[in-house]
Amino acid sequence: MDAKDNTxxxxxxxxxxxxxxxxxxxxxxxxLFRVDIGFEEFKKTDNGFQAFFNRYENLPQLATDRxxxxxxxxxxxxLHIADMIRNSDKTRANLKPxxxxxxxxxxxxxxxxxxxxxxxxxxxxxxxSLMVIGDSRGSISxxxxxxxxxxxxxxxxxxxxxxxxxxxxxxxxxxxxxxxLPQSFTAANLEKKAGIQIRWxxxxxxxxxxxxxxxxxxxxxxxxxxxxxxxxxxVLPLELPFETIRTISLLIPxxxxxxxxxxxxxxxxxxxxxxxxxxxxxxSSERQIDKFHYWRERLVLLKRTYDDAxxxxxxxxxxxxxxxxxxxxFWVAVLVFILxxxxxxxxTVASVVQAWASVKGLxxxx
Length: 366
Description:
Blueprint: H1 3-12, H2 22-33, H3 39-44, H4 46-56, H5 58-66, H6 75-86, H7 92-106, H8 114-129, H9 165-170, H10 187-194, E1 197-201, E2 210-211, E3 216-220, H11 223-228, H12 239-251, H13 261-270, H14 296-308, H15 314-319, H16 324-362
Helix pairs in contact: 1-2, 5-8, 6-7, 6-8, 7-8
């Protein structure tokens, strides 16, 4: 199927129908991210963006559940609305009339409802920003949806205008705290040594957030989409996708160019983006906290939480060698205790056997 056939199919295929072929998924991604990537390269990237479509194909279904008439919209019309949002510096309220007019003319032929406009705008914005924007009732994920208010625009400009929804989500006061991010600071060790459970998220805004009294860490894993994103004229700040990939590489470092065993198990169990385990391995300079801007605050908080966490069971005690002197002293003491008990038992048993033998030897022979 060539590009023209794909385009014609996208113009006919309704949002109530999943994209039926890899060729159509490839075309959809190229148009959404505004990139020209060959089909073979697309197929090699997480087996054709498998994790991306596992998650984001649910969004049109959620939209049609909220307003049934949305199912009359085609994928091509959704992409056109995404372009209208991407190319605009207007607030949601000022952009809404143009999208209403387009939908009135092209989708619903004079019967457009403003609820439909709001829902389709949230859907397009979610796809563009890799976040969950608007009401996601019916979703089984832990993602927290974000409200795109009428007085905000979506796109984040060079000046990080606070009138932008993206800027308000990803801007935070820059901490002066300095923490070290050693090679051992990985997602696997967060679980094994500190008892911080990893929860995978499809919402970029939830990346590196600690939940449930700092016992669960949210990790975004859609590296395939992030790696295509910077080449497009999109809504996120240019450096944000690159930096997000570096945080993923920090916590999921590859081993000899391949994903480590911990991530391979997680990937199979949770259907994650395979590219998340194949990022460039950071060197010591790249792990400096000053090299992170957008995710600095969350990394500092995560490292503090990791350092302060105390082992809660023997398994965590065994793996927790963050304080090597204490770890060595504790396990030497445990070994000495076990050996003391062991030899004490042996001595007791030997004494009992000896006493029994002595008593038996004192018995008169008949």
